[in-house]
Amino acid sequence: MVTRSRIRVLPDHVANQIAAGEVVERPASVVKELVENALDAGAGTVRISIERGGKGRIRVSDDGCGMTREDALVCLDRHATSKIRRAEELREIHTLGFRGEALPSIAAVSRLTIETAIEGEEVGTRLRVLAGRMQGVEDVARRRGTTVDVANLFLSTPVRARFLASVPAETRAVSDVIHSLALAHQGTRFVFESGGRTVLDLPADRGLRSRVEAIWKDAEKAGLIDLSTGQGDLRLAGVIQRPDLARPGFRRSHLYVNGRPFRDGRLVAAADRGYRTTVPEGTRPWLFLFLGMPRVEVDVNVHPGKAEVRFRNRRQVEGFVEAAVRETLEGIESAARWDAGPEMVREGTGTRGRGPVPGAGRTDRTDGAAESGDGDRGQMQLFRGAAGGVEGAEDEASAQRAPRPALLQVHNSFILAETRDGVIIVDQHAAHERVLYERIIAGFERRDGEGQRLLFPFTIRLSGPEMDVVESVRAPLTRLGFEFERFGDGALLVQAVPSPHAYFDAERCMREMIDELVHGSELMKGARNQNERVAMSFACKAAIKAGQKLSDEEMQELFDQLFATELPYHDIHGRPTTVNLRLDELRRSFGRT
Q1: Model-level pTM greater than 0.90?
Q2: How far apart are CA 577 and CA 570, in angstroms?
Q3: What is the pLDDT of residues 464-485, one digit of tens each?
Q4: Helices (H), 25-68
Q5: In whole angstroms, how far apart are CA 121 and each of 46, 73, 379?
Q6: % pLDDT > 70, the chain
Q7: From 3.30.565.10, 3.40.50.360, 2.60.40.10, 3.40.50.620, which CATH number describes the 12-200 domain?
Q8: What pLDDT digit, counting tens, does each position of 68-98 carry?
Q9: Helical ranges in 424-581 per DSSP H
């Protein structure tokens, strides 16, 4: 039998314990709230000390502005805050805290002591609170600033205490909070002690990268690069990781908007899309990104822990972040493009350029092989443009501007060249894939693709779904150089094909492309539109394969074209196209100094 109960207003200390369930989830939540208060108070130094992962004691001291006795007493009331006065001010919040919930929530579930003093007063105030009930108010001699001591967390809600993680796990969570706040406040010194041992001592510093390297010792070898850009009212700054040093698995990523840390998986995914075609699937580059925008464009009053935000125009923000990362990576690839190129050494010189080797024959066979007057494979046009025809050879003065490297093909798969600092090794398939992809995209933009007509057209049998897919990408296939028409029931007659190199098997390539476009692949997931899907698929299927022997001229042409691309150091899957062995590494390997 259900009995009827009267509705009553809960006492304040009970209401605070309930509210604490949202604000105070674990010791790290307490540290976050207290450190944010210290930073809002203008602290130059913040000291954090914990015992038993924060389950035993948490102590946060600062040298900020401090509080008067009156303010110290009021700060324990729910929704008492110095940050806002009117609801309209929520749209212009610039402080980390503003709800006025943290201290009363913490006080409701612990033994809390606050010591505070303001500038110019010799005597400060000490407050002692037990499970939300005031135990005493007294004078204390101390310098300007505030110290908050939290002992026996969850003493009034023991069930919550039983759900806390192990001491090491809670300590790591506290460390993560401190790291996040320290990254955003490089001008503040942070000292962190655990169990009486100093774990971290970060001096005040104005540089983000130096602070990252001070927190994580392995960051010095992580290949971090600066990012800074803007678009209208949006600004993005920070550091990201070089693609060649990014790894799968664990990552370090920190996001901030107007200096406030927050979590947003979709924004991280947008940044990851900026790495598309420069890192393999599943790679997780380090990201430390600081967004700046008008405060009215972002709502920070979403979650009691202030860990989530809501953007007014999310699509614009995600697109901006993706483009910023992509353009930054393109910039460093461009700057590094000729690190190997001009420094390669070889006796003598030769023609340098992106054009064909003179004497290239015409491809008129269905297997893509070229006809040549003297049968010399070295005179074939190996790397003609896949879309947009063949780029013209550079003039003689330009052709002589750099020495040519001596090249060696290893196992008909890798090309080695001597550089000033050691040896560079190029994966011929990955390199050609990158060359083809960028040529195709450029040809699509110019809309000037032209194929090679076949003396003997061939047919491909297709199912209904396959035919539908081919029709859906007819436009980019045509711009690529394919010409085809329906031939009877369930067949395609192919009359012209692109000719990216002398060993191109057009029929096999088209069959494999159709299979991939129909069934999808990991590569296809990164494509943003039909043009990119076709370009990626063709570049992957049409590129010269491992095991294909190349002449000296063909290897040289591949080198020249690779280092003229926008992103020469990665194929379209994000895998490296080159590996550098430095001379000092070789010497060490042989026991030389």
Answers
A1: no
A2: 5
A3: 889 999 999 999 999 888 999 9
A4: 27-40
A5: 21, 17, 89
A6: 78
A7: 3.30.565.10
A8: 999 999 888 865 454 434 444 445 554 554 4
A9: 428-446, 464-472, 474-480, 506-519, 522-525, 530-542, 552-562
